[in-house]
Amino acid sequence: MGDSLIVKSKVKDYVKDMNVSGDFADALSKVCEDLIAKACERAAANGRKTIQARDL
Known about the structure:
Distance between the termini: 22 Å
Number of strands: 0
Oligomer: single chain
Helix content: 40-55%
Radius of gyration: 14 Å
């Protein structure tokens, strides 16, 4: 896997009173990568080169 799409400090700020395990950000980044890849496929299937919110 390449660079993470997730800013770990922002995740920690968001969850406030919860602890965040060391592998959580990497797993979350993978989920985001999968969502983005599927959005790209959907946009391409609809003849677009721009991914949009509706592709999620």
